[in-house]
Amino acid sequence: MFRPAWILLVLLLLFSCRSREERIAETRTRCADVLGFWTMTFDDGSPHPPTALKWIDVDEDGDLMERLHVELQWNAFMRVDNEDIAFDDGMLQFYDEFSGRMDVGAEKVRLSYRTWDARDITFVLRRMHDPDTIRMMKEIYAERSASIMPLPVPDLRDGLAAASFAELGVDSIPLIELLGDIHDGNYGDLHSLLMMKNGRLFLEEYFGADGALHGPATAKFLRRQPVSPQSVSKSVLSALVGIAIDSGLIPDVNTPVAELFPEYAHFLEDRKLEMTLEHLLAMNSGLEWNGPSVAMTDTTNDTNRLQRHEDPLAFLFSRRLRHLPGKVFRYNNGHYHAVQELLDCRIPGGTGAFARRVLFDSLGCDSVRWGRQSAPHLRPRDMARFGMLYLRSGRWQGRQIIPAEWVTVSTVNHQQPGQTRYGYFWWPQKYITAGDTLSCITAIGSGGQYILLFPSIDFLLATTANNYDRRTRDLRATVEDIILPAVMCCPDRCS
Question: Domain coordinates of the chain in residue numbers?
């Protein structure tokens, strides 16, 4: 026989369940026009591919939510179960940044967005009717609780041969534990982690939503999605410079900048006449630049000012000469702009077309986008292939793509003793593991884009991420303490 307290509890539970079901039903009715799958696109009157995919639904408590957001541009990040979304009387708002009104047919929403530098950008949401894309989004969302065991590396016949941990003598246990840490969010919004040893790909993992999304559908999407590698682009540009010099398309690195850009000679007088192409590549031109010390969103940041200037090279070359050329390293994004402008002006078709013709087509990178005065968009496997090219002294499948001499000279240190080590748009570094010091050739892009090359053990690591202004576990410590010991382990104790 039920006691009164138990009866009251049962009634409360039944009431709670009924109330929750009623809330869900009420929200579904009120927000019916906005529920479902959407594409998000720039709306400036020109045709643009979608920038994002969205799945808007109602959660178990009856609240409107964005069940899944898939970014298609920049660095392809994903979000799940975001409740910062509202729909009322035809008005949609999310992230406290985007807002707009639903059209009469409930097929489109125009959204306005104000950027950090006070620019107004408009987007449009369009209802999605593509069943394949909808199925992909559902499969990706379902993987938020999938197994964290390593995924098989597929043989895509794209020049990257696959191998198992055991075949290469790699200890799998610490790397599986590392994947668990990524899944738990300890490495922020890491998107891809690729490892190669002896020229073979043995680990290729993809993540979304701060590591929570992991599985075949997530991997299939992110594997084929080109992303911005940020300043890894500088290392790619360095390769193109070496090829262009070897082909006689531009002068050698000892050529004065004033000769390369005669139209700016009035800015390049006195001791600035000593500046050469080598000083631009090595980031030791001596020009004043505050980029590393001022936030990019600050309007006084020199990189910000360069991008907004009507004549970026005039802005760069008019900067005060603080040090004699070649004496002091100072990271300067203006140097990348100047070097790319040199190739754009001297080579028919510009840098992007040249890159595809002499580099990416040979590597089998068939999805690279690279416009004038921009940066390439690469897939994670493209980054791995590019890195392997440097581990093979510029050769790919028996063909010399980059001059071997350039591979060597561009990746060694060109700075004065005691300063930051930097080559020609590459970072030559040292890693210490188990008492061993290993040389590492590194391409680094903000937000967590890396290509790490260890020639002495024929090992490559590449990552893409969306960790801008976020603190995560230190990659260097992870490489030294976990990854390198696993890769260098003795065969008799490897799993």
Answer: 26-137, 148-247+361-495, 250-346
DSSP H helices, 392-489, are: 404-410, 475-478, 484-487
The answer to whether 464 touches 452, Cβ cutoff 8 Å, is: no
b/e sequence 254-278, b meaning 16+ C-beta within 10 Å? eebbbebbeebeebbeeebebbbbb
Question: pLDDT band for position 298 (50/70/90)?
Answer: confident
Q: Is 187 helix (H, G, I), strand (E, B) or coil?
A: coil
β-pairing verdict for 200-206 and 161-162: parallel
* Torsional class of 97: left (φ above 0), alpha (ψ -120 to 50), beta (otherwise): alpha
Cα distance between residue 107 and residue 393, in whole Å: 54
DSSP per-residue letters across 262-275: GGGGGGS-GGGGG-
Nearest to 343 by CA among 250, 279, 406, 268: 250
Of 452, 224, 243, the C-alpha closest to 362 is 243
Going 39 to 44 to 49 to 52, the CA torsion angle's sign is: negative
| Local structure of residue 153 (DSSP, 8 states) | P
Place of tokens 């005691």: 418
336 vs 2, which has greater pLDDT?
A: 336
Closest Cα partner for 285 from 233, 325, 238, 227?
325
DSSP string, 204-243: EEE-BTTTTB-SHHHHHHHHT--B--TTHHHHHHHHHHHH
Q: Is 198 left (phi over 0), alpha (psi -120 to 50) or beta?
A: left
Say if CB 330 and CB 420 are below 8 A apart: no
Write the class of the CATH domain 250-346. Answer: mainly alpha
pLDDT tens-digit readout, 222-268: 999 998 899 999 999 999 999 999 999 999 999 999 999 999 999 99
The fold of the 148-247+361-495 domain, in CATH, is Beta-lactamase (3.40.710)
CB environment 343-361: b (16+ within 10 A), e (fewer): bbeebeebbbebbbebbbe
Convert the pLDDT of each residue in 124-133 to its tens digit: 999 999 999 9
Fold (CATH) for 26-137: Lipocalin (2.40.128)
In angstroms, the CA 403 to CA 393 distance is 8
Q: Quote helix, strand, coil % in the chain, to nearest 5.
A: 35, 25, 40
What is the C-alpha separation between 312 and 306, in angstroms, rounded?
5
**This prediction's pTM:** 0.91
Backbone angles phi, psi at 109, to 5 degrees: -135, 125
Q: What is the DSSP string of 310-327?
A: SSHHHHHHTS-B-S-TTS
Those residues with Cβ within 8 angstroms of residue 296's Cβ, 6 or more apart along the chain or in another chain: 303, 304
